[in-house]
Specification:
Radius of gyration: 19 Å
Oligomer: single chain
Structural class: alpha/beta
Number of helices: 5
Shape: elongated
Order of helices and strands: HHHHHEEEEEEEEEEEEEE
Number of strands: 14
Largest sheet: 14 strands, parallel
Length: 199
């Protein structure tokens, strides 16, 4: 696995210090956030190519690909391309979306969508950060970013551009050119060019 990993980690200098598969997985987990921001496509391609073969090793390091983690302790979930819905139902994983897939979050999952094509349903107390696409927020979930949101329940929404279709919320903060379509103006703050359409 160490030999195969060098093909997708061209920009990381500390990789040469790894000596075995376990070191490689610890390295990937330690520098995962930075790597995802720098080379998300390469990380996705690597996971698609080698996750099935090295699933046990990935899972030992707390990394899961296109599946809900079997443990709730410091789990990191990477979501690549998938035709199937991916349901994350473990307690508090860190979820990073680096491909195209419909993701359904439960519990206290924290999700960051690194693509501009979010397709997320946030339930219970999950949190989503996204920059394009569509999020359905339910329960006591929280959504931050830019894009389109449909919310209900006691959700918290903070958008810096896009459209909020509000069917219920705890609070809404709209900035930039956000358009809020709602039945009320309660617990809502509008900044910049944000606009409220009461229906």
């Amino acid at each position: 696995m160490r030999q195969k990993c060098t093909q997708c980690n061209k920009s990381i200098t500390n990789f040469e210090q790894t000596t075995d598969d376990t070191d490689v997985l610890i390295f990937i987990r330690t520098f995962l956030r930075e790597s995802l921001l720098q080379i998300p496509e390469e990380i996705k391609d690597f996971c698609e190519a080698y996750y099935a073969e090295f699933k046990d090793e990935f899972n030992l390091a707390g990394i899961f690909y296109n599946e809900s983690p079997s443990t709730s302790i410091n789990a990191t979930v990477l979501i690549g391309d998938s035709e199937d819905d991916i349901v994350i139902n473990n307690n508090e994983p860190r979820v990073y979306i680096i491909g195209k897939a419909k993701v359904i979050l439960y519990g206290k999952a924290k999700c960051e969508c690194l693509t501009d094509c979010a397709n997320i349903i946030a339930k219970e107390e999950s949190k989503v950060v996204f920059d394009g696409g569509h999020v359905i927020a339910e329960g006591r979930s929280s959504v931050f970013g830019k894009g389109n949101v449909t919310c209900s329940g006691a959700t918290s929404i903070s958008l810096g551009g896009g459209i909020i279709n509000d069917n219920g919320h705890r609070n809404i903060i709209a900035d930039g050119d956000t358009i809020v379509n709602s039945f009320t103006n309660r617990n809502m703050k509008l900044y910049g060019n944000a606009k409220l359409n009461l229906r």
